[in-house]
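The passage that follows is intended for readers who have already worked through the single-chain material. We present the inputs for a multi-component assembly, then the predicted structure in tokenized form, and finally a short commentary. You are encouraged to pause after the input and sketch how you expect the pieces to fit together before reading on.
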Amino acid sequence: MNILLLTIPVALALGLFFLIAFLWALRTGQFEDLDGAAHRVLLDDDVGEDDENKPDFLKD
Amino acid sequence: MNAHARDWSAFVTPSREEGVCRLDLAVEGITCAACMVQIEKGLGAQPGVSKARLNLTSHRLALEWRPDETDAGTVIDVLESLGYRAHPFDPGRVDEVEKVESQKLLRALAVAAFSSMNIMLLSVSVWAGNASDITSETRDLFHWISALLALPAAAYSGQTFYRSAYHALRTGRLNMDVPITIGVTLALALSVMETFNHADHAYYESAMMLLFFLLIGRWLDHNMRRRTRSFAENLMALRAESALVIEPDGSLREIPVSRVAEGDRVLIRPGERVSVDGIVEDGNSEIDQSLVTGETLMVATGPGTSVYAGTLNAGGQLVVRVSAAGKGTLLDDVNRLLDNALQAKSRYMHLADRAAALYAPLVHGAAALSFAGWWLAGIGWQPALVIAISVLIITCPCALGLAIPAVQVVASGTLFRHGILLNSGDGIERMARANTVVFDKTGTLTAPEPAIANAADCPPGTLAAAARLALSSRHPLAAALAHHAGRAEPFAGVEEVAGEGVRVVIDGTELRLGSPAFCAAEAEARAIAERYPLASLVAWRAGERSPMVFAVDQSLRPDAAAVVAALRERGLAVEILSGDREESVASIAAALGVSEWRAAQRPADKIAHVEALRAAGRSVLMVGDGLNDAPSLAAADVSISPVTAVHVSQAAADCVFLGERLGPVVAAIDVSRRAHRIMRENLWFAALYNTIAVPLAVAGLVTPLIAAAAMSGSSIVVTLNAWRARLGRAGLGDDVDSRQA
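Having made your guess, compare it with the prediction:
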């Protein structure tokens, strides 16, 4: 049963971590525009013309 | 004349960042993500703009800039050159309160989710352990951890319910939140007690799951309402209500209407809507009051006469001194009647509250009886209390608490897709019960803008040429003609003859558009006036050829007749109440086949008639747009107004419909009736569930496992049933997608 003393705090800590992450996201306005966020992820305007990080399929 | 400064300062707020200004704009014409990119890149490239972020959900643009490098006017001009019209929000009206409320609900939901999931993890272990080999020490440990998670989480995330229950009890009412609060509190208290007693069962997960499910319902409900409201606010802002104020030094300044003070002098140019109430100081004109009184004839105004916000200046330029509504004016009348109507409006008892009023005493009574029964049967007060509380938990108001909000969320989403914005959630219930529809005529049954009545008799070339010339005039009658111009460019070098019309010389031929006298068309005008006795006339002459006279008249909305027929088919009586003249109302009523109509109704007459109908046991749906309709919109059981209506009426109405067509009225009735039926089904399901669950609980057979399964099962059934409100056809089948309207 000793393993319980480890797993329960770990489970709770993980849950708490995600709760705090969610509250942080909420506070910083990341749930303000769900439609916009869905489209912004597809925009490649953060990748410059001669950007080294450009994925292969975007290179000419 | 146009050289005046647009004054945005009233809308600009200082940003959190030092030396940066902020402005929130409603932007029109956004259809997809490409627009978002175009706007953000276009504005971001402007010098001085530090932030331009478009919210694609609400179609609002947050703009920040450094005032020493650029100004609001420049940025908005750039936006317009990109092809998007924008209008700022009053910073005070931005829905900060709503946003805070929504975030609070979401935080509560997250906490409840975290806590209920972890407790469930522990509870499942206990249930499994109880069936096999868990030691009582381990079980106690699990129960204590659950308590540690549940108590603070319930205290935090249940606040919405506790507060609402407290308010209800203090005013001597019962709502759904009362049994919810009692259920949660007792379940937690019992669990702590049982944990102390090293018992096999505790009910932490039931309490937390109840809060979790109900918070989902609350949040969805709140979110849907916030979304429709922010959409309505965008429409409001885009109507760009500003006034041209004459400064003491004679210069002109355009400011938002909300910033106009009493005593200011406001310039109203020909063809503009009057934006304020006041007394004319200078200038003579004709005023179209149809949006205010329903009267379609123009009224002559001069120095000393009153004008009202919402009327249209058809003639010359006016200078108006802004005044508050004086005693005995129409506006004063309307305000007084509106106040009375809002006070007298009997507090409609929501279906959910009626269900709660029935449910709460019944269930609490059953719990008390089972406590008394078991105690008298001699099992001791503690086990008896456990059984009594398990009755309260199993009859958990979970299904009942979700039964109605879930349907409201789905139904208001469906209404939104049909072009109807719902102002009040219980509007659906009241709409479903309506059996009499009272229409206003002007602007409601008829289109908000007049149209050419004899367009079919005109040679197409003539109509197109006249329409092209009409583009150069600000007169409202010319606006009706200008609709026929299509994509034509206005003529160059058009000359306006004040009070007469417009003229231009093209290839040596003089073209004239204006009053019949201006075009020497009196004879033709008499002939047309005989055929269209109610119309206003506009004449057209090209050189020496015979002139043409157009009759400009109110036109019915394209589907008005179909809507009246569809309403009758659904068993609703249809009436017309108009402030307009008798002849004018009679012809519309005849065209629609409505026999119950009244003309020349003042606001007090309208409200009296609506109240008489209600006294006769009718449930009245009022559809109207004018200032004179506002009191009767508030007095009716339920009300709808078109999006072109004046502010006061839109605020008094339960919902607002978009677009040219009247069809959404039928859709509103269909969707509401279906939603109401589903709400009742859900309530019956909850009742049926309780008649099975209560005897089990009273017999002392309910374990936490059964409670959890029953609770989730019943919640899922009512939620799935609520989705049926989306299905099926509603209205005339010509749905407008409101996002494109």
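Commentary: Chain A is about 55% helix and 0% strand. Helices of chain A lie at 2-27, 34-40. How closely did your sketch match?
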